[in-house]
């Protein structure tokens, strides 16, 4: 129960209000029509209902048996989570993204709560087919029933910024058409403006953080995510690099059916992440290995990665083959950024040189110089984030490990708490930390096991070791057979 309330408080802070909202708004309402004040008032309404329902539940528990009290707690959690899902799903934008992240980050939430939150990954309340069609008319100049040979007005997925419809082009290609919610840009801007409460709390917990740079980085990345023209460019970049790859597939973009608010790409079918969780451990390990290679290999090989690791962005095909979707939130790194990341791995993982590691993070702005902590204390704290590649041995991710990752960042108690309070988050680390937490959370749910050190050494260009797994050997053979295509280096 405590963890649920902590998470509710987090979302309340981000929303700038007390808790959540659920309203019987019409489907064709424009997302951004509320404005900042309206969204905050809406958020507070469910807070009042939640508090009232908790008071009733608490009263019932007074005369209940221990077993009955557990039942009452579980019922309260489920009902509250259902309202959260409805609230964030209708609000869309940045607030809904919080719910998506909570569904796969291990925050100690009850399983029923997480399963309910998981609806936000692909099944948020959609806008009407008529409204989606009107966006396409405005953007592409005609009704989708005219533009496409076939058009399904019922979306196959809906999320924080847009929803996806099936269609068939007149050339016979099956496509997925992503349509942005009208007004969502204004809604996200409203959410960002009300983030002062969250950042005020962060500054109290972590005085070393420069929240100005964090806000600017988040604003830049979210603004980019709203531009489907930029997303199409990112997707083409990744698709070109991985063209023909035996395990990693990125759908083709159809530029003639795309614009700033509409993006059309190849329709791909396969299994969802929740279905993968029912597969054998061998299959889970293969899926995790490909996710690992794509996520961490892209940083060094493409100087970019997809910064939105939630499970709805992957389609699984078995045998380690995965289709990667949604390239709206892509972080591009400078040569200086990738050199920094390489230095951190070299000093922490390969050389175990805590003194140089400390100097590196000080130069990067992650730690202010002159702090009263030993090199060993700093190395011990940061080693958690490299733990799975520190040793040349098998390592199994589990949910406790991913939960420890959340605590390693946000829990300021204990001996390491004082160190965390003086740490900063430079711009290049903002999205990086999100992908680290998100990917590790997914690996934990998969109970993924492998020698991640050896796989890491394959994808790190400053090591570039020989393939150590069947997937690695297949990729290596493919790369050689393809004539070492220009620009390709193995992931």
Chain-averaged pLDDT: 78
Oligomer: single chain
Count of DSSP H/I helices: 23
Structural class assignment = alpha+beta
Helix proportion: 55-70%
How many runs of DSSP E, i.e. beta strands? 12
Poorly predicted runs are: 1-30, 32-48, 87-91, 99-108
What overall form do the CA principal axes indicate? Answer: globular
Using only C-alpha atoms, the radius of gyration works out to: 23 Å
User: Percent of residues in beta strands?
Assistant: 5-15%
- What is the makeup of the main sheet? 5 strands, antiparallel
Distance between the termini: 42 Å
Structural notes for this entry:
- Among the domains are: 120 residues; 221 residues, no CATH class.
- 56% of the residues lie in helices and 9% in strands.
- The protein is built from 23 helices and twelve strands.
- Strands 1, 2, 3, 4 and 6 form a five-stranded antiparallel beta sheet that branches.
- Helix 1 packs across helix 10 and helix 3 runs parallel beside helix 5.
- The N terminus is likely disordered.
Brief synopsis:
The chain has 491 residues and is an alpha+beta fold.
Q: Tags for this entry?
A:
56% helix, 5-stranded antiparallel β-sheet, 3-stranded mixed β-sheet, disordered N terminus, 23 helices, 491 residues, 12 strands, alpha+beta
List the helices and strands and how they pair.
Layout: H1 2-15, H2 35-62, H3 66-91, H4 93-104, H5 111-117, H6 119-122, H7 129-140, H8 144-147, E1 150-151, E2 157-158, E3 162-168, E4 174-180, H9 184-193, H10 196-205, H11 211-225, H12 228-241, E5 248-249, E6 262-266, H13 273-276, H14 281-301, E7 304-306, E8 314-318, E9 321-324, E10 330-332, H15 335-350, H16 354-363, H17 375-382, H18 387-390, E11 395-396, H19 399-410, H20 417-421, H21 427-446, E12 449-450, H22 452-459, H23 470-481
Parallel strand pairs: 5-9
Antiparallel strand pairs: 1-3, 2-3, 3-4, 4-6, 7-10, 8-9, 11-12
